[in-house]
Specification:
With 479 residues, the protein is an alpha+beta fold. The protein folds into 2 domains: 238 residues; 224 residues, Phosphatase 2c, domain 1. Helix content is 56%, strand content 14%. It is built from 13 helices and 11 strands. The strands form 2 sheets. Strands 2, 3, 4, 5, 8 and 9 form a 6-stranded mixed sheet that branches. Strand 6 and strand 7 form a beta hairpin. Helix 2 runs antiparallel to helix 4, helix 5 runs antiparallel to helix 6 and helix 6 crosses helix 7. The longest helix has 47 residues. The radius of gyration is 34 Å and the shape is elongated. The protein starts with a helix and ends with a strand.
């Protein structure tokens, strides 16, 4: 070839390296940006590692572009050999981690082990270059690992029986029925396998084939990723709509108003942690003077706990006949729910008040104590009367406390979500602060106190901290 032709071919090659290197770096940055925005989406780690892989691949192409390097300042040119060693060994690590996120079962375990091995080779290979200046000390080992991994992946993608046996029972790994990704992976795998094997025999294929194979793989993964993002968004929208409906239904099972009882005033607060909650409360009025107050807390959160809370609503309506007998009411609730809890537990407390005779009866099932303020002598009481949680095998009786009361007394039933919120220092709101607030707020009627108490709990938590539990409480004032 004539010198002019050689110079022209070399110039074209340098321009191609510059264009492809820049393009892959841009693609990598976009992938990392998408991964950051959609960090909670399914499969986002595959996009993240693909972005890292594309960045490293693009940097490798720029490192090979002597035309660009000649234009760089001297201090940057000194760093180029180190950059070249880094990308030479780390390319395989990023590639294996990308494929790991697209597989399942034993193949995923194999790729994890292979990626760790490649990382170990990279550490010694880069370290050897820093100490000796020889970049190629472990290059053959690195190329062998790449060829071995690609051969296994090609066999996995092209042999259905291997996919079923080693893919975690999934035909195409994590991404099922993704023929576009399958085609892109096969094209890239064949090209990369050929290039790695050829280089071990001293033959260097044109880099444009590496670029083309990698671009086809990125395009196929991008297509699948967009489909998956769209599918995830659609599924998320459906779930959000269903949760909104579930929230409306759950609020519908709660009392819509407080019972109009003589000599009593009450207020209720119900603040779910998520769209739906495992807390529950109910009023069981008997007449103008007597009523029962039930509060319950299902273990766990979200939809499973909310379903059990709905079951408590039905169960509570079926035991109205024994509303004046707290131990019997709890015993019957436990009997109804015990076969339906599926390993979850429920704490509950029940207070029966007769405002004509000025007596109350209280029983609980593993629940926080009933709080009582006695206006006559300014005494604050924590009343314990606990039996076993619902969902735990229990043959005994629920204890009951008989509580005479007087004008000005106040009762508070609550779930543990009221006292557990923590401040920035990790200190819980706690029983002590709750007691102190109740002592200082005797002049506030029940409705005002309920809002004040909720505001105090919210102020206790950092503004950026999410709510960690459902908050429910009932305040009952004796007039």
């Amino acid at each position: 070839m004539a010198p002019d032709s050689q110079d022209q071919a070399r110039f074209i090659g340098e321009v191609i390296k510059l264009i492809t290197g820049t393009s892959f770096i841009v693609i990598g940055l976009v992938a990392l940006l998408v991964a950051a925005i959609r960090r909670r989406a399914s499969g986002v780690l595959a996009v993240f590692w693909l972005g890292v892989w594309s960045l490293i691949y693009g940097l490798q192409r720029l490192n090979d572009c002597s035309f660009l390097i000649a234009l760089l300042p001297g201090w940057i040119q000194v760093c180029v050999p180190y950059s070249h060693a880094l990308v030479t060994y780390l390319t395989l690590v990023a590639a294996l981690l990308t494929f790991r996120e697209l597989t399942a079962g034993k193949l995923r375990q194999f790729l994890t082990l292979l990626a760790l091995t490649a990382l170990l080779v990279a550490v010694f290979g880069i370290g050897g270059f820093v100490l000796t200046g020889d970049e190629n000390r472990l290059l053959r080992v690195n190329n062998f690992l790449a060829a071995f991994g690609l051969a296994v992946l090609l066999a996995f993608y092209t042999v259905p029986s291997l996919r079923r046996k080693y893919g975690g029972g999934r035909e195409h790994g994590v991404l099922q029925d993704r023929k576009v990704l399958l085609a892109g992976s096969v094209v890239f795998g064949v090209e990369a396998l050929f290039s790695n094997v050829a280089r071990n025999f001293g033959y260097n294929p044109y880099s444009i084939w590496d670029d083309l194979g990698f671009f086809i793989f990125i395009a196929s993964l991008g297509y699948v990723a967009m489909q998956r993002v769209y599918s995830s968004e659609l599924r998320l929208t459906t779930i959000e709509n269903e949760l909104a409906l579930a929230r409306k239904l759950q609020f519908a099972i709660l009392p819509t108003s407080t019972p109009n009882l003589r000599n009593l005033r009450m207020a209720a607060v119900y603040e779910p942690m998520t769209a739906v909650a495992g807390d529950f409360y109910e009023y069981l009025p008997a007449d103008d003077y007597r009523a029962g107050f039930l509060i319950a807390d299902v273990s766990g959160h979200g939809v499973p706990a909310a379903l059990i809370a709905s079951m408590i609503k039905v169960a509570a309506q079926s035991v109205v006949a024994c509303a004046s007998d707290p131990p019997e009411l709890l015993r019957r609730l436990d009997r109804i729910l015990s076969g339906q809890l599926q390993g979850q537990f429920v704490s509950a407390a029940y207070l029966w008040i007769d405002s004509r005779s000025r007596t109350a009866r209280y029983s609980a099932a593993g629940h926080p104590p009933l709080l009582r303020w006695r206006a006559s002598d300014g005494v604050f009481e924590r009343i314990e009367s606990n039996g076993q949680l619902f969902g735990v095998p229990f043959e005994g009786d629920y204890p009951v406390r008989e509580l005479p009361f007087f004008a000005g007394d106040r009762f508070v039933l609550y779930t543990d979500g009221l006292t557990e919120p923590e401040n920035a220092a990790g200190e819980a709101f706690g029983d002590h602060r709750l007691e102190q607030l109740l002592r200082e707020s005797q002049a506030h009627p029940a409705a005002e106190l309920s809002l004040l108490l909720l505001d105090e709990v919210r102020a206790w938590q950092p503004a950026s901290a999410p709510q960690h539990d459902d908050i429910t409480f009932l305040i009952i004032d004796v007039l």
